[in-house]
Every structure is written in structure tokens, then in C-alpha cells.
Design a protein that fits this description.
The protein is built from eleven helices and nine strands. It is an alpha/beta fold and 343 residues long. α4 links the parallel β3 and β4.
């Protein structure tokens, strides 16, 4: 296993640093389709590595990665930590509860402090939309967005696409073109939904979104998604069903009558799933609220549910992102200054 970029597939994306010329990964919005494909393809080598008994390489040996999480996380934080360590980096986790923000320090001062520590990459999760971009503007190293408010969660969308691509290839289908994906749940508060809409439509899929009227963002069509309020109609013929949890921590007021009523109208049950395509795949970014947005027999159904696969692909995608974004700083051939495009 080497740290150099793999040879690009003919016509798929440019060679070297031009395949992904950005310093940071702040969102899916603004990325070209070939840049998404490049990150997905780069992750394949790490999928293979992670399935071996020996999972360590020295690609990032000597580099320091800071995971600065100002918002609670389990899967994302753990997978970034595992990704960094498997690549050989020194990984430091910073939690909001123990940070100086609790003492009144501004976010900009925190960014300046992190920058003074000479980290080689910083992964940031924050409850405010745009906070990650603000920090990225104040530091000298690559910044990866691990979720900012209701804005974006780019690595989640990428890992979802990777898990889906693996499932499609196992069925003899290699591309997303023509695929119908229904995303149902709390669309209004979901950065996962936004990033997935942008990612999947860029890859050629058709995306439907379904939510109660109070949880459907205005002008969602501008992102390329088709809105539904009737879950049964949104499921009709869908190839993939992605469920989202109710983000109660972001809600101010009453958005649904009750969890029971929500499950009756928008919960994914076996009966309801039968309205989708016969071999429809089921996804969920987690954490799941079983019995609210999804029933256990659907979430755990072998051959249908990709939920565990999504977790596995999360480590590989984050390894790929850390590898790619640090190549310029590591002086990897073909990733020089001529490819810079700061975002």
C-alpha cells in the first residue's frame, strides 16, 4: 500500500492533484462529479485494507490529526479516530465539554489556538451552520467537515454512496444513473439529507424526499430533489429507501403530533417497504430510533439493509479523505502547488 494517487480510470477524472484540487472538504455542494468519483475510488483500497487482519499503514506517519468535536458524536468521531490511526497519524480528540469555549472563548480564538499547535489536518463537528468554514479560513492545514448544524455532512454522503455502490455492484449494476432513492424523515434539520441529495443527484440518481409539511424545507426542489408528504407515494418503485431520525435536539416547538402518530404515517415497516421496488435496499445514517422511523425487522433484514455496511464504509471513506487532503503537504508526486484551489 502506498500513499501515491492511483492511476485514474480513463476519462473518469484528471490525473494527480487535479483530480481533487481542494485544500478542504467542507461540503458536497460545489464539488464536481469526477471529484466525488475520485474520492469513492480512492476509498476502495482502504475497504480492502480494513478487511485484512493487519490494518495499519504508515501513510500519515509523523502527522498530527485533531478531531475537534463541539457536538456529540459516536460513529463519526470513532471512525475518524480509527481512520487516522490506521493511516499511522497521531490522533488527538478534543471534546466541547472540556474545551475553553465553555469558559467563553470565541470560536475564532479556538481556531487560532488549534492552528498554533501545527496540526496537519483538523476534523470539525459543530452545531452551527458555517462554523467549520469559519475555522477553515483561520487555519493553515486541511479541514474536514464532520457535520455543521443543518448545513452539510460530506463524509456521511460519501460513505452512503460507497456502501450503495458496493451493493449495486454485487447485483451486477455499476452506476447510479436512473436509480430512484427515497429519503424520508426530518429533512428540515438534516445535514445528512442535504449532502446526500447533492451527492446522489451529482452521481446520476433521482432523489425523492418525504416528510411531514412541518419538516420539509422550503424550495427543496432547488437542490434537485422531488418532495412528497405521502410516504406511500414516495416509496412507489423506489430502489433505495434511506430513513432519517427525528432530530429533537434541533427542534424548537412541536413539529409532530406524537412519535406513535409519526410512525403510523412515516415509519418504515415491512408492509410499507413492499411498495418500493422488489429488491429495494434500506439505509439509515444512525443513530436509529427503532419503532419510530424504522422497524427492527426492516433495519436488520439480511440482503436488504445496508446499515452495518454504511458504518464499515465510513472508516474507508474517512481514510481516503485524510489521505487525499494531506498529500500536498506530504509532497506526494503530482500534488504540488499548481493544483491548489482553496475553498
Amino acid at each position: 500500500m502506498t500513499s501515491s494517487a492511483k492511476a485514474p480510470a480513463a476519462g473518469r477524472y484528471p490525473a494527480g492533484g487535479l483530480a481533487f484540487p481542494h485544500r478542504d472538504l467542507l461540503g458536497i455542494g460545489g464539488l464536481e462529479t469526477h471529484e466525488l468519483l475520485f474520492l469513492l475510488d480512492e476509498a476502495e483500497q482502504w475497504v480492502e485494507l480494513n478487511r485484512r487482519s493487519s490494518k495499519h499503514v504508515d501513510v500519515l506517519s509523523g502527522l498530527t490529526l485533531i478531531n475537534a468535536f463541539f457536538e456529540n458524536s459516536t460513529r463519526t468521531l470513532l471512525s475518524f479516530e480509527i481512520a487516522g490511526k490506521r493511516l499511522g497519524a497521531d490522533v488527538v480528540n478534543m471534546h466541547a465539554a472540556t474545551s475553553s469555549l465553555k469558559k467563553g472563548e470565541t470560536l475564532i480564538d479556538t481556531a487560532v489556538t488549534l492552528n498554533a499547535m501545527r496540526a496537519d489536518a483538523i476534523v470539525i463537528r459543530h452545531a452551527s451552520s458555517g462554523a467549520v468554514a469559519l475555522i477553515a479560513d483561520k487555519v493553515d492545514c486541511p479541514v474536514l467537515n464532520a457535520g455543521d448544524g443543518q448545513h452539510e455532512h460530506p463524509t456521511q454522503a460519501l460513505l452512503d454512496a460507497l456502501a450503495l455502490r458496493h451493493a449495486l455492484r454485487a447485483r451486477g449494476q455499476d452506476e447510479f444513473a436512473g436509480l430512484c432513492v427515497t429519503i424520508c424523515g426530518d429533512i428540515l434539520h438534516s445535514r445528512v439529507a442535504r449532502s446526500n441529495i447533492l451527492c446522489l443527484t451529482a452521481l446520476g440518481a433521482r432523489v425523492r424526499v418525504c416528510a411531514p409539511p412541518a419538516l420539509m424545507p422550503a424550495a427543496i426542489e432547488a437542490l434537485g430533489a422531488e418532495p412528497f408528504h405521502d410516504f406511500d407515494a414516495a416509496l412507489c418503485g423506489a430502489d433505495v429507501v434511506m430513513m432519517l431520525r427525528l432530530q429533537n435536539e434541533r427542534m424548537d416547538g412541536q413539529f409532530i403530533p406524537s412519535p406513535r402518530e409519526y410512525h403510523r404515517l412515516y415509519g418504515l415497516t415491512s408492509t410499507r417497504l413492499a411498495r418500493a421496488a422488489p429488491d429495494a435496499l434500506v439505509m439509515h445514517p444512525g443513530p436509529m430510533n427503532r419503532g419510530v422511523e424504522i422497524d427492527s425487522d426492516v433495519a436488520d433484514r439480511a440482503g436488504t439493509s445496508l446499515i452495518v455496511n454504511q458504518v464499515e464504509m465510513g472508516v474507508a471513506i474517512r481514510m481516503a479523505c485524510l489521505d487525499v487532503l494531506t498529500r500536498r503537504g506530504r509532497g506526494v508526486a503530482g500534488w504540488g502547488d499548481e493544483a491548489k484551489q482553496w475553498v
